[in-house]
Amino acid sequence: xxxxxxxxxxxxxxxxSGSSYNNGLVNSLSSKCELTLAAAVDYELMERxxxxxxxxxxxxxTMKRGTLRSVIRLWEYVRGYIEIFCNLKRNNYxxxxxxxxxxxxxxxxxxxxxxxxxxxxxxxxxNVLPHIDGEKQYKILMKIYACMDKILVHGENIKKEFQxxxxxxxxxxxxxxxxxxxxxSTQYDSSAIDRVLSEKIRQYKYIFLFSGNIFYNKGLxxxxxxxxxxxxxxxxxLIITGEQTSTYKEYDRKKNEIDQCDNxxxxxxxxxxxxxxxxxxxxxxxxxxxxxxSMSAVIFTAACFKxxxxxxNVGALSEYLEDGTDSIICSPDEESLYNALYTVMQxxxxxxxxxxxxxxxxxxxxxxxxxxxxxxxxxxxx
Length: 382
Prior knowledge:
By secondary structure, the protein is an alpha/beta fold. The chain contains 14 helices and 13 strands.
C-alpha cells in the first residue's frame, strides 16, 4: 500500500470550510493508502484510520491579528516543518502532497528538501497566483512550482490560466475537482438568534447573502454600488458577512452608506457558526459578485444549505454549475450583475429559487463526492 504524507498547515479547528474540504479528502483517501496528515494543533480527525501530526500553530491560531502574532506564527510555521523533516528521516513516503503553502520564500526551501525525500511531490494550487498582490509572487511561485512533479487545480479554466502563466510547466498540471462539503452542520439554535434581527430578516420577500473573505477581487463594492443605486426601495434584503483583512478602498468608502441603508445588514468580520447557519437557512440566494476567482467554497456551502447561487463567470465556477437550472451565471460587470438581481426580484418566485437550490445540492452530491475524487486522485496522480 502506498504511503502518503498530506501536508495542510491551514487545516485547523476554526476554518470550517477548509476543515470540511480536508475531512472529505482524507476520509476518502484513508482506505486507499497509508495516510499521514500534518495539520494545525487543534485539528481533529473524523476518520481514525489516519496518522495525525498536529505540528503547526500551537499558539498563533488563537491570537488576535497583529505584529506579535505574525512573528510567532512564522516561527511556528518553521517549527512545524522541522517536525515534518524529522518525520521524513524516520519514514519513507511514496507521495508527499502539499495542500497550502503559507510563506513562499521559506516554502521554496522546504519543497526542495522534501523533493529529495519522496518519489512524488504533489501540490494543490487552489489559486494559480494569490488573490491579493498575486503578480508580485510570480517569480517565487515559479521556483516552487518547478520543484513539483504534479500540480493540481480545481477546473479546466484554472488549468488554462496556469498554463498561460507558466507554459513551461504545462505537462505537470492536472485537474482534481473540489469536493462537496463533508458533514457540514446546517443546524442552528433559534433561541440564540437576536429577536430583532430575526424579525427584520423575515419581513423581506427576497434575501440575498454574501459571505467569505472581503477584498477587491470579490467584487463586493460592485454589488453594493448596484444595490444602493437601484434596490434600496425593493422588498429585498442584502446581508453581508465576512472578514476584511486588507485595504479595500472601493468598499471602505461605501460603508457609511451601507450602514444607513435599511435593506442592507453588514456584519463586521466573520459571524459565528450558529448565526451563519441561521442566515444561510433563511436566505433565498447566495451571491458571488467576483471580479476574479479560481474556485469558491460558497458553491459547496450553498449546496449544503440547498440554496441557489448568483455568480459571475470567472475561474472554474461555471464548470460546477448548470446555468438557469441550479444557478444564475452572469458576466463579471455591474450591468450583468444588476440584470441577474433584477431578474430574480421581478421574475422568479421564492419556490422556484428553492427548487434551484435543491437541484444544486443534488448536482454537487452526484458529481463531486469525495469518494469519486479520491479514487481519481489515487489512480491518476498518486
